[in-house]
Amino acid sequence: MNKKALLCLDTESLLHPFLIGLPDERLDEQPWLGVCCDAQKARLAVFSNKELKVVWVVSSDTVAGINLAAALRKDNPFVDVYYVTFDMTGSVLSRCRAASVKPLNKTGFMHAYSSLKTTKKNNQYEEVKRDQKARTFLLSEESEGDKSKPHNEINQSQEEKLRAVNCSLGEKKDELDLEESPNVFPQFSLEKRQEAKKDISLLREQMKLGDSEVLRNTCNKKSEPMADKGDRLKKALVLLKEEQKGCVLSVFSGSGGSGKSTISAMLGLAAVDLGFKTVILDADFQFGDMAFLLGLNDQTTVQDIIENPERIHEVMNHDALPSLIASPKNLEYSEVASKQVSELLVLLRSQYEVIIVNTGAFWCDLHAQLLENSDKSLFLIDQRPSSVRSCSHALSLCVRCGIATQNFVFALNRCSRQALLTSIDVSCALKGVHVHELKDGGKEVGELLAAGLPRELTRGRNVFYEGLKEFAQEIIPLKKKSETSNTSASDRSKTFRLIRRKRRAACL
User: CB atoms < 10 A from the CB of 253, how many?
Assistant: First the structure.
């Protein structure tokens, strides 16, 4: 029996419906409602059920709710997908807007659920009433046509008819129970699986029965499951010879809007101008826009590298720009990418001298991995007082998690004479840490980056970029190749001078 609505939630919410605003409600016993706690089963239900009209996504046992809602929306654009959230913030609304998902608060969800439940109950009542009238009419017609028969024979014929109707209903009920049962998935034979590849009707029948093999073959025709794709990266690292050890510089902030993406892009340009082989990793795996800021299209993504590590050699430099590994094209792949970021950094260290990592505003386990695997961690603060407070909260979180803070670097963005805060103010608020000042480059910084023309800033001798380039020389724990060669030449000349002086002194 195809469900009209689908509810995606975690197991805890299923066992305790009051957590989602539905007390004393047995969600798994509703004939009109399908319930899924697993993301893969939810995607299968949306893909195979043509009568499905609405999907409510609260949470899931495997992936984040917003990621699952975005995937379901992409799987079936004709179904209304709602992301049920009890914290209707601006960040949530923007993420829903980007994924073309409708946000729904607690009150709206309760109203939508009750109204749809009432409608389905009324429809079922009318259907049962029509069936009863039809049975009564059928039996009355047969009894009137057999008035010549004795009363016992009429009753006997009626009982036989009722028994036949009940048997047919029982058979249908067994079939429905077989289809609706979440624990019973009859498997097709190997021959039938081969036939299913050729016959679309048989394929649909097989998918309805929940055959795991056909699901694997149909949902992932060109690739293997996501969990297995990350193993390729781990296997590649085993054979990797770490001849080159690159430096990882990650950019963080306690809140959004501080300019992490801008600073990451310009630090990458500065590192290239300093003579380093540089790559930028856009670790904002959900809504990263580094490719847009650098003006690069069709760039190699994190998903490409994780699934095929040999594609690291396809990452190209464009017109003196740093190499770029863009965020995944599919929003739901962010969960897989977050788990493989440590192995990805090891691979990048072997290929590049400087790795600039751009991060997202929402702190999670990914940030802890980046902090532990970074040679330098740049904490960016803007001119808002709330940004200073957010940075202080982030530092206290690092201390509680046991993350070493000796490699932390702090910088105040958009500094000018008219700025609200100075580096001294921020330093006092953060208990005396050294804070660098990054000059305000004016409107042209945002305008040129929005147009995908970052090199125009470097050619125009913008004060923001010039100051950032000097800042990069301080925080990158590597020396420029030109500097090393010059220093070695000067050292040799000093040595020769000392030898000449000693010889002269010996002659005298």
Answer: 24
Exposed, middle or buried: residue 50 (CB in 10 Å: 0-12, 13-18, 19+)? Answer: exposed
Cα-based angle 308, 359, 228 (whole degrees, multiple of 5): 30
* DSSP conformation letters of 450-507: HTT-THHHHHTT-HHHHHHHHHHHHHSSS--HHHHHHHHHHHHHHHHHHHHHHHHHHH
Residue type, 128: V
**Burial environment of residue 175 by CB neighbours within 10 A (0 to 12, 13 to 18, 19 or more):** exposed
DSSP H/E element including 73: helix 65-75
Q: Which residue has the tokens 């749809």?
A: 116
Given a contact cutoff of 8 angstroms between Cβ atoms, the answer to whether 377 and 408 are in contact is yes
pLDDT band of residue 187 (cuts 50, 70, 90) is very low
Between CA 258 and CA 269, with CA 263 as vertex, the angle to 5 degrees is 170
CA 244 to each of CA 247, 276, 314, 351, 353: distance values in angstroms, whole numbers, following the listed order: 10, 13, 19, 7, 8
Alpha-carbon span 267 to 476, nearest angstrom: 10
Q: pTM of the predicted model, to two decimals?
A: 0.52
Contacts within 8 Å (CB) and 24+ apart, 27-31 = 30/117, 31/1, 31/120, 31/124
Q: Which stretch of DSSP H or E encloses residue 84?
A: strand 80-84
What is the residue type of 331? L
For β-strands 54-57 and 80-84, DSSP reports them as parallel
Q: What angle do CA 145, 146, 149 make, to 5 degrees?
A: 165
pLDDT at 195: 52
Residues 170 and 73: their CA atoms lie apart, in Å, by 37
- Rounded to whole angstroms, how far apart are CA atoms 41 and 219? 11
Phi, psi of 417 (to 5 degrees): -70, -30
pLDDT (tens digit per residue) in 360-393: 988 888 998 899 899 999 999 998 989 999 999 9
Using CA atoms, how far apart are residues 444 and 462, in angstroms rounded to an integer? 9
